[in-house]
Specification:
Blueprint lengths: L3 H13 L5 H10 L12 H16 L5 E5 L2 E4 L23 E6 H7 L4 E3 L3 H7 L6 E4 H5 L4 E12 L2 E7 L13 E2 L8 H4 L12 H12 L4 H9 L3 E8 L9 E9 L16 E8 L12 H10 L9 E4 L9 E6 L6 H12 L2 E4 H9 L9 H12 L4 H14 L5 E5 L4 H10 L4 E8 L2 H12 L5 H8 L16 E4 L4 H16 L2
Parallel strand pairs: 6-10, 13-15, 13-16, 14-15, 16-17
Antiparallel strand pairs: 1-2, 3-5, 3-6, 4-9, 6-7, 7-8, 7-11, 9-10, 12-17
Length: 512
C-alpha cells in the first residue's frame, strides 16, 4: 500500500497545480483534513521530504513525483517540459549523534501482553533492563524499524493531592497533530548519555531514572530544591509500564510511568515551563475537580483512569459541534470504530426515537450479492467490501443505494449505520438533496473498545486479533471522520451510561 504521505502529496499537488515544498504540502494536507489521526512524528515536513525523495530515487522516471528545483516537488504528469525536472545530487545521511535505549520487540512481547498501563512493573523491568536484552540504537534507525521498542519515561507531577497538566503548544508543526490535547505526562526517550549522568552513582536501570531527572529539568523550570530531591531519589516513584499497540507510533514505544511529588518550594504555586511546547500549566485537584477525560491525549487518559480514578468524570458526555444537521428531518449517519458502541447507539435511536435504519453492511452485501456478517465471516466480508469501495464506481453506487433507501423513509428519520469511507460520505451528502445530512461519531478509547467488542462477540480474542479487525483496510478512514462530525459521543463506561448519554443529547437537540 502506498505511503499515506505520498497519497496526501499527490492530492495536494494535483489540487494546487504548482511545485511546492514538503512543509507546504504537509500544512495543506492537515488544513484540508487529508491525513489520518494516526499520523505522528516530530518532523512531518522532513518525513514528507524523505518519502518523496525515496520514491523518486527508487522509481526514477516511473515515479509520480519530480523535483523542479532544490526542495521543490511536483507531479510528473503536470510538468510541461522535461527540462523542468531537477536532478538532485544523492543525499548522504549524516551520522546520528543520539543513541536511544531499545528492546527487541519479540523479547518485549514475551513479557508484555497487555494494552494500557499495568501496575505490576517490577518483573518486567527486571527482565527488560539487562545487558543481554537492551541496546542503544541510532534514533533514526529505531524510528524506521518494526523490530525494536523504544524506551520512554512518562512522569506525572503531583503536589499535595493535585496533579499538574498542560497543553501542547502550537509553536511548530509537531504540535499540529496534538493541538488542544491536554497532557499529564512529562518525559521522553532514554538516551545513552543518561546512563553516565551521575558518574559517582553508576546507573542500575540503564539511565531510566536519570532520564526522568533530565527530562523534568528540560521541560519544567525546576527549583534547585527539586533538582536535588530528584538526584537523591526523593518523591519519585515508578508506578507502572505503559504499552500501546493501538497505533503505528505506539507499537514502536513503551514507557516507564512515574509520579513525582514536588517539594514545598513556593515557586510551585505558579509553575513555569522550560520548553516552548509546554503551555497552560495548571494544577488539577483530586478532591475538588473531575476532569473531562476526552480532552486529554490517549496516554494521559490511560494514566488518569488507572492512577487518578477519582479525578475522572464517571458520566458519559457528548459534544455538539453543529446542531442543525443533527435535528430532524434529516439523514443521520452514525459512525465509529469497531467496538465503539455504534451499534448500541443506532439501536437506541431506532427503538426509542423512531429512526428507520439503513445498514450499510447489508446494503453492500446486497450490491455484492453475498450474505452479510456473520453469515459471511467478518474478515472475508471486509476484504470484499474494501475491494468494492476502492473501485472508481464503488462509493457512488453505495451512496446512490443509501439515498434510494432514505427517500423511501417518509418520517424524515433515516439512520445510516456503518458508513466507513469519506468518498461515500461526500457522495451521499451531494445526493440527499434538500434533506440535511448529519454525522454523529461515537468515540471510545482503543483498550475499552476492545473490551466492549470482546464482550459483545462472546469470544476470547486477544488484542492483536482485535486490532486486525479494527485496522482492516475497509475501516481505516473512520478516524478521519471525527474531525468532520457534527456531534461526538464519548463512550467510557459501557452500554447503560452510553444509552443515558444518547438520551441526554437527543433531549437537548429537541429542546432547541
Amino acid at each position: 500500500m502506498a505511503s499515506e504521505f505520498l497519497l496526501v502529496a499527490e492530492q495536494v499537488l494535483l489540487s494546487r497545480s504548482k511545485p511546492m515544498r514538503p512543509n507546504e504540502i504537509v500544512d495543506v494536507g492537515f488544513e484540508e483534513g487529508l491525513f489520518s489521526d494516526n499520523v505522528s512524528g516530530k518532523t512531518p515536513g522532513q518525513t514528507m521530504k524523505s518519502k518523496l525523495s525515496q520514491d523518486i530515487r527508487r522509481h526514477g522516471e516511473n515515479s509520480r513525483f519530480v523535483r523542479t528545483a532544490p526542495g521543490l516537488f511536483f507531479l510528473r504528469q503536470l510538468i510541461d517540459h522535461p527540462e523542468q525536472v531537477f536532478d538532485a545530487p544523492r543525499y548522504s545521511k549524516p551520522e546520528s549523534t543520539e543513541k536511544i535505549l531499545v528492546v527487541p520487540t519479540e523479547r518485549f512481547r514475551e513479557l508484555v501482553s497487555f494494552q494500557g498501563l499495568h501496575g505490576h512493573w517490577k518483573r518486567v523491568k527486571k527482565n527488560l533492563l539487562r545487558e543481554d536484552v537492551c541496546t542503544y540504537m541510532d534514533r533514526r534507525e529505531a524510528e524506521g524499524s518494526e523490530h525494536f521498542k523504544q524506551a520512554l519515561t512518562y512522569v506525572a507531577i503531583t503536589r499535595r493531592g493535585q496533579l499538574l497538566c498542560y497543553k501542547r503548544g502550537s509553536y511548530n508543526r509537531v504540535e499540529k497533530y496534538l493541538r488542544g490535547s491536554r497532557c499529564v505526562g512529562f518525559g521522553g526517550h532514554v538516551i545513552r548519555e543518561d546512563q553516565a549522568m551521575l558518574p559517582l552513582f553508576p546507573s542500575k536501570d540503564f539511565g531510566v531514572t536519570e532520564c526522568v531527572i533530565r527530562e523534568l529539568s528540560e521541560e519544567i523550570d525546576l527549583p534547585a530544591l527539586d533538582r536535588q530531591r530528584l538526584l537523591d531519589g526523593a518523591g519519585l516513584e515508578c508506578i507502572g509500564i505503559l504499552n500501546d499497540d493501538s497505533s503505528s507510533v505506539g507499537k514502536k514505544h513503551f514507557a516507564f510511568v512515574f509520579t513525582y511529588e514536588v517539594s514545598n518550594d513556593p515557586s510551585w504555586e505558579d509553575p513555569r515551563r522550560g520548553e516552548k511546547s509546554i503551555t497552560q500549566l495548571q494544577w488539577l485537584s483530586r478532591e475538588k475537580q473531575q476532569v473531562p477525560i476526552w480532552e486529554f491525549e490517549y496516554w494521559s487518559q490511560l494514566v488518569l483512569r488507572k492512577m487518578f480514578t477519582e479525578m475522572v468524570s464517571k458520566r458519559q458526555s457528548y459534544k455538539l459541534v453543529r446542531r442543525k444537521p443533527l435535528q430532524p428531518p434529516h439523514v443521520l449517519c452514525v459512525v465509529g470504530e469497531v467496538g465503539s458502541g455504534k451499534s448500541t447507539t443506532t439501536r437506541l435511536l431506532r427503538e426509542s426515537f423512531g429512526y428507520e435504519e439503513i445498514n450499510t453492511g447489508r446494503v453492500v452485501a446486497e450490491i455484492l450479492k453475498i450474505p452479510p456478517v456473520p453469515e459471511t465471516s467478518r474478515e472475508n466480508f471486509q476484504t470484499k467490501a474494501f475491494r468494492f469501495i476502492s473501485s472508481d464506481a464503488g462509493p457512488g453506487m453505495l451512496a446512490a443505494k443509501i439515498t434510494e433507501c432514505a427517500n423511501q423513509i417518509g418520517s424524515g428519520l433515516a439512520l445510516v449505520d456503518g458508513l466507513r469511507q469519506l468518498k461515500t460520505l461526500e457522495q451521499l451528502r451531494s445526493m440527499v438533496g434538500r434533506q440535511r445530512l448529519g454525522l454523529l461519531y461515537v468515540y471510545t478509547p482503543p483498550d475499552m473498545a476492545f473490551g466492549f467488542f470482546r464482550e459483545r462477540e462472546q469470544r476470547g480474542i486477544n488484542f492483536d486479533e482485535y486490532l486486525k479487525i479494527r485496522n482492516a483496510a475497509v475501516e481505516r478512514e473512520i478516524p478521519e471522520m471525527l474531525g468532520k462530525a457534527d456531534g461526538v459521543i464519548y463512550n467510557w463506561t459501557g452500554t447503560s451510561f452510553l444509552k443515558n448519554t444518547v438520551r441526554e443529547m437527543m433531549h437537548e437537540l429537541k429542546s432547541r
